[in-house]
From TrEMBL:
Listed name of the protein: Heme exporter protein A
GO molecular function: ATP binding; ATP hydrolysis activity; transmembrane transporter activity
One Pfam family linked to the record: ABC_tran
Taxonomic lineage from the root: Bacteria, Pseudomonadati, Pseudomonadota, Alphaproteobacteria, Sphingomonadales
Keyword ATP-binding (UniProt): yes
Organism this protein belongs to: Altererythrobacter xiamenensis
Residue intervals of the ABC transporter domain: 5-191
Origin superkingdom: Bacteria
UniProtKB keywords: ATP-binding, Cytochrome c-type biogenesis, Membrane, Nucleotide-binding, Translocase, Transport
NCBIfam families, sorted: ccmA
Any GO BP: cytochrome complex assembly
InterPro entries: AAA+_ATPase (IPR003593), ABC_transporter-like_ATP-bd (IPR003439), ABC_transptr_haem_export_CcmA (IPR005895), P-loop_NTPase (IPR027417)
Amino acid sequence: MQARLAASDLACRRGDRVLFRGLSLALGPGDVLHIEGANGIGKTSLLRILAGLLAPYAGSVEREGAIGLVDERPALDPDLPLGKALGFWSRIDGSSEAAAIAERLALTDLLDVPVRYLSTGQRKRAALARLMGQDAPIWLLDEPLSGLDEVSRGLVAELVSEHSAAGGIAVIASHQPLVVERFEAFALAEYVL
Ligand SMILES: Nc1ncnc2c1ncn2[C@@H]1O[C@H](COP(=O)(O)OP(=O)(O)OP(=O)(O)O)[C@@H](O)[C@H]1O
Protein backbone atom coordinates (compact mmCIF):
# COMPACT_ATOMS: atom_id res chain seq x y z
CA MET A 1 0.00 0.00 0.00
CA GLN A 2 1.51 3.32 -1.07
CA ALA A 3 1.00 5.79 1.76
CA ARG A 4 2.68 8.91 3.05
CA LEU A 5 1.45 11.70 5.25
CA ALA A 6 3.65 14.61 6.22
CA ALA A 7 2.91 17.87 7.96
CA SER A 8 5.37 20.70 8.17
CA ASP A 9 5.37 23.48 10.74
CA LEU A 10 1.59 23.47 11.16
CA ALA A 11 -0.28 26.04 13.17
CA CYS A 12 -4.01 25.94 13.83
CA ARG A 13 -6.23 28.88 14.64
CA ARG A 14 -9.88 28.59 15.67
CA GLY A 15 -11.77 31.82 16.18
CA ASP A 16 -9.24 34.25 17.63
CA ARG A 17 -7.11 31.58 19.37
CA VAL A 18 -4.05 29.81 18.03
CA LEU A 19 -4.42 26.27 19.39
CA PHE A 20 -1.01 24.89 18.45
CA ARG A 21 1.97 25.79 16.31
CA GLY A 22 5.28 24.39 15.06
CA LEU A 23 3.84 20.91 14.56
CA SER A 24 5.59 18.63 12.09
CA LEU A 25 5.19 14.92 11.48
CA ALA A 26 6.14 12.40 8.83
CA LEU A 27 4.38 9.07 8.51
CA GLY A 28 4.98 6.20 6.13
CA PRO A 29 3.64 2.68 5.50
CA GLY A 30 2.58 0.90 8.68
CA ASP A 31 2.81 3.90 11.01
CA VAL A 32 0.12 4.32 13.69
CA LEU A 33 0.09 7.64 15.55
CA HIS A 34 -1.93 8.25 18.70
CA ILE A 35 -2.80 11.95 19.15
CA GLU A 36 -3.16 12.60 22.87
CA GLY A 37 -4.39 15.69 24.62
CA ALA A 38 -7.02 17.21 26.86
CA ASN A 39 -10.52 18.20 25.71
CA GLY A 40 -10.41 21.21 23.43
CA ILE A 41 -6.66 21.12 22.79
CA GLY A 42 -7.18 20.68 19.04
CA LYS A 43 -7.10 16.94 18.21
CA THR A 44 -10.16 17.08 15.95
CA SER A 45 -8.86 20.28 14.37
CA LEU A 46 -5.53 18.58 13.61
CA LEU A 47 -7.27 15.61 11.99
CA ARG A 48 -9.37 17.95 9.86
CA ILE A 49 -6.23 19.82 8.76
CA LEU A 50 -4.55 16.50 7.89
CA ALA A 51 -7.68 15.50 5.94
CA GLY A 52 -7.65 18.76 3.98
CA LEU A 53 -11.00 19.85 5.43
CA LEU A 54 -9.62 22.75 7.46
CA ALA A 55 -6.97 25.17 6.25
CA PRO A 56 -3.94 25.42 8.54
CA TYR A 57 -3.17 28.89 9.90
CA ALA A 58 0.44 28.18 8.88
CA GLY A 59 2.37 25.26 7.44
CA SER A 60 1.49 22.58 4.92
CA VAL A 61 0.38 18.97 4.57
CA GLU A 62 1.47 16.46 1.94
CA ARG A 63 -0.51 13.30 1.31
CA GLU A 64 0.15 10.29 -0.88
CA GLY A 65 -2.89 8.07 -0.85
CA ALA A 66 -6.60 8.57 -0.29
CA ILE A 67 -7.91 9.60 3.11
CA GLY A 68 -10.54 7.71 5.08
CA LEU A 69 -11.94 9.83 7.92
CA VAL A 70 -14.12 8.55 10.74
CA ASP A 71 -15.48 11.18 13.11
CA GLU A 72 -18.67 11.68 15.06
CA ARG A 73 -20.65 12.33 11.88
CA PRO A 74 -20.99 9.14 9.88
CA ALA A 75 -21.69 10.02 6.25
CA LEU A 76 -24.65 7.65 6.12
CA ASP A 77 -28.15 8.80 5.17
CA PRO A 78 -30.15 8.70 8.44
CA ASP A 79 -33.39 7.87 6.63
CA LEU A 80 -32.10 4.86 4.69
CA PRO A 81 -31.89 1.34 6.04
CA LEU A 82 -28.25 0.66 6.94
CA GLY A 83 -27.76 -1.81 4.07
CA LYS A 84 -28.87 0.77 1.50
CA ALA A 85 -26.85 3.58 3.14
CA LEU A 86 -23.71 1.42 3.04
CA GLY A 87 -24.61 0.23 -0.48
CA PHE A 88 -24.52 3.84 -1.69
CA TRP A 89 -20.85 4.03 -0.67
CA SER A 90 -19.89 0.53 -1.89
CA ARG A 91 -21.07 1.53 -5.38
CA ILE A 92 -18.98 4.72 -5.25
CA ASP A 93 -15.97 3.00 -3.65
CA GLY A 94 -16.26 0.00 -6.00
CA SER A 95 -16.16 -2.32 -2.99
CA SER A 96 -17.29 -5.89 -3.59
CA GLU A 97 -16.83 -6.97 0.01
CA ALA A 98 -19.80 -5.22 1.60
CA ALA A 99 -21.35 -8.44 2.95
CA ALA A 100 -18.08 -9.70 4.47
CA ILE A 101 -17.39 -6.30 6.03
CA ALA A 102 -20.91 -6.10 7.52
CA GLU A 103 -20.41 -9.58 8.98
CA ARG A 104 -17.01 -8.64 10.46
CA LEU A 105 -18.54 -5.59 12.15
CA ALA A 106 -21.58 -7.50 13.42
CA LEU A 107 -23.94 -5.42 11.30
CA THR A 108 -25.61 -8.18 9.30
CA ASP A 109 -28.73 -8.24 11.49
CA LEU A 110 -29.04 -4.45 11.32
CA LEU A 111 -29.04 -3.94 7.55
CA ASP A 112 -32.83 -3.35 7.48
CA VAL A 113 -32.77 -0.80 10.32
CA PRO A 114 -32.83 2.91 9.37
CA VAL A 115 -29.52 4.55 10.24
CA ARG A 116 -31.24 7.05 12.57
CA TYR A 117 -32.40 4.19 14.83
CA LEU A 118 -28.92 2.76 15.34
CA SER A 119 -27.35 3.04 18.77
CA THR A 120 -24.17 5.05 19.27
CA GLY A 121 -21.94 1.98 19.10
CA GLN A 122 -23.81 0.51 16.12
CA ARG A 123 -23.46 3.80 14.28
CA LYS A 124 -19.74 3.84 14.99
CA ARG A 125 -19.42 0.27 13.67
CA ALA A 126 -21.36 1.36 10.56
CA ALA A 127 -18.91 4.23 10.01
CA LEU A 128 -16.03 1.74 10.33
CA ALA A 129 -17.72 -0.51 7.75
CA ARG A 130 -17.78 2.40 5.32
CA LEU A 131 -14.10 3.08 6.08
CA MET A 132 -13.15 -0.52 5.34
CA GLY A 133 -15.04 -0.52 2.04
CA GLN A 134 -13.22 2.65 1.05
CA ASP A 135 -9.84 0.90 1.04
CA ALA A 136 -8.05 4.22 1.71
CA PRO A 137 -4.36 3.96 2.66
CA ILE A 138 -4.55 6.81 5.21
CA TRP A 139 -7.00 6.42 8.10
CA LEU A 140 -7.82 9.43 10.27
CA LEU A 141 -9.88 8.24 13.22
CA ASP A 142 -11.41 10.70 15.66
CA GLU A 143 -12.38 8.98 18.91
CA PRO A 144 -12.96 5.61 17.21
CA LEU A 145 -13.48 3.88 20.58
CA SER A 146 -16.06 6.22 22.08
CA GLY A 147 -19.39 4.52 22.66
CA LEU A 148 -18.00 1.06 21.88
CA ASP A 149 -18.21 -1.97 24.15
CA GLU A 150 -15.15 -4.07 24.95
CA VAL A 151 -15.63 -6.51 22.07
CA SER A 152 -15.94 -3.68 19.54
CA ARG A 153 -12.94 -1.87 21.02
CA GLY A 154 -10.91 -5.05 20.48
CA LEU A 155 -12.20 -5.20 16.92
CA VAL A 156 -11.08 -1.62 16.20
CA ALA A 157 -7.59 -2.49 17.49
CA GLU A 158 -7.59 -5.54 15.20
CA LEU A 159 -8.67 -3.51 12.16
CA VAL A 160 -6.00 -0.88 12.81
CA SER A 161 -3.33 -3.60 13.25
CA GLU A 162 -4.32 -5.22 9.97
CA HIS A 163 -4.36 -1.85 8.19
CA SER A 164 -0.87 -1.11 9.51
CA ALA A 165 0.42 -4.60 8.61
CA ALA A 166 -0.87 -4.04 5.06
CA GLY A 167 1.20 -0.82 4.85
CA GLY A 168 -1.54 1.67 5.71
CA ILE A 169 -1.16 4.73 7.93
CA ALA A 170 -3.48 5.47 10.87
CA VAL A 171 -3.69 8.68 12.89
CA ILE A 172 -5.96 8.23 15.87
CA ALA A 173 -7.22 10.92 18.22
CA SER A 174 -8.44 9.21 21.35
CA HIS A 175 -8.61 9.57 25.10
CA GLN A 176 -7.96 5.83 25.39
CA PRO A 177 -4.95 4.06 23.91
CA LEU A 178 -5.47 1.16 21.50
CA VAL A 179 -3.64 -2.10 21.94
CA VAL A 180 -1.82 -2.04 18.63
CA GLU A 181 1.80 -2.71 17.68
CA ARG A 182 3.69 0.35 16.39
CA PHE A 183 1.32 2.58 18.36
CA GLU A 184 3.31 5.76 18.79
CA ALA A 185 2.16 8.53 21.11
CA PHE A 186 2.01 12.13 19.95
CA ALA A 187 1.32 14.67 22.68
CA LEU A 188 -0.38 17.72 21.20
CA ALA A 189 0.33 19.69 24.41
CA GLU A 190 3.96 20.04 23.28
CA TYR A 191 2.84 22.34 20.48
CA VAL A 192 0.59 24.58 22.55
CA LEU A 193 2.09 27.94 23.39
N1 LIG B 1 -15.49 26.66 14.16
C1 LIG B 1 -14.86 27.01 15.28
N2 LIG B 1 -14.70 28.32 15.63
C2 LIG B 1 -14.07 28.67 16.73
N3 LIG B 1 -13.56 27.79 17.61
C3 LIG B 1 -13.70 26.49 17.33
C4 LIG B 1 -14.35 26.03 16.16
N4 LIG B 1 -14.32 24.68 16.17
C5 LIG B 1 -13.68 24.31 17.28
N5 LIG B 1 -13.30 25.40 17.99
C6 LIG B 1 -12.55 25.41 19.25
O1 LIG B 1 -11.27 24.87 19.00
C7 LIG B 1 -10.81 24.16 20.14
C8 LIG B 1 -10.32 22.78 19.74
O2 LIG B 1 -11.42 21.97 19.34
P1 LIG B 1 -11.17 20.46 18.91
O3 LIG B 1 -12.52 19.88 18.62
O4 LIG B 1 -10.16 20.42 17.83
O5 LIG B 1 -10.56 19.84 20.25
P2 LIG B 1 -10.33 18.32 20.69
O6 LIG B 1 -8.93 18.23 21.24
O7 LIG B 1 -10.66 17.39 19.58
O8 LIG B 1 -11.36 18.16 21.88
P3 LIG B 1 -12.16 16.89 22.50
O9 LIG B 1 -11.14 16.02 23.20
O10 LIG B 1 -13.11 17.51 23.45
O11 LIG B 1 -12.84 16.20 21.34
C9 LIG B 1 -11.95 24.14 21.14
O12 LIG B 1 -11.72 25.13 22.13
C10 LIG B 1 -13.16 24.51 20.30
O13 LIG B 1 -14.12 25.20 21.04
